[in-house]
Amino acid sequence: MPDVVAMPSVLEPITGPFIDDLQGMLGPQLVAVYLYGSAITGGFEPDLSDLDLVVVIESDARLLDLSRIEVLHDRLAARHPDWTDRLDIAYVGRPTLATFRSGGTVASVSHEDALQLYDDADGWLQTWYLVRHADTALLGPPVADVIPPIERREFVNAVARDTDRIVRRLATEQRPGLVAYTILTLCRVLRALHDGAMTSKQEAAAWVSDRMPDARPAIDEALAVRASGGRQPFSPAGRVAVLALVAELGAEIRERRGAAPGTDVSTI
Fold first, then answer.
1. pLDDT tens for residues 11-25?
2. Which of 226, 224, 217, 223 is closest to 245 using CA atoms?
3. Quick check: 207 and 191 in contact, CB under 8 A?
4. pTM for this structure?
5. 216 phi and psi, to 5 degrees?
6. 36 to 31, 32, 133, 165, 260: CA distances (angstroms)
7. Can you tell me the distance from the alpha carbon of 14 to that of 91, in angstroms, rounded to the nearest whole number?
8. CA atoms within 13 A on the CB side of 77
């Protein structure tokens, strides 16, 4: 895993007022706010990266008034319009986190997906692991006091199992930004399976390019599409090459984790 770094200064005027709003709305129900993701572990890009937060409350997330929480999100977006579609915020009860392997409810807003409830806290192991690793409390107790230990092997296996879901999306949706996100995410997964390292997308892309020189042009084009915020389309040849690489990396990942084959996107 990358070393933990200081929170980017660009996030301070965003997170501070948002936490003030949370405290005003939730009062003593608010336990903690944890920052994680590239803002802490490296590779943060102010114009592209998400704001990744986990908000911990005393009670079950099912008791939250989601319409009131949405008001806070709208208020944040009004203050910082560039972040409207880059919020990745989960709300979860402290008791749920303590026993998350048994399931439980999480409320989440992610990019274009509206705030909603999910009854699969056990399926969020990757998030809970990354939050523990980042160990960055913007408010509240140290994360180790709230989220129980998770082994790295358990995390890597969960990441690998999620590969098929990531690839399957390309069967129905092929926005340039999503295609670029998919190939760069697969680079990260393969690197994690190789030696347990969970690096930034840029570092993982460089690792795969060094390992597979023939893939470098496709990866470089994916990086350029991502840098444009998904506005730059793939060239026709680049799109074919990237989808073929998705299939190749996906197959290697499935082989390494011993799972049954999933979607083959090479023919999409």
1. 999 999 999 999 999
2. 217
3. yes
4. 0.81
5. -55, -45
6. 17, 13, 8, 22, 32
7. 18
8. 15
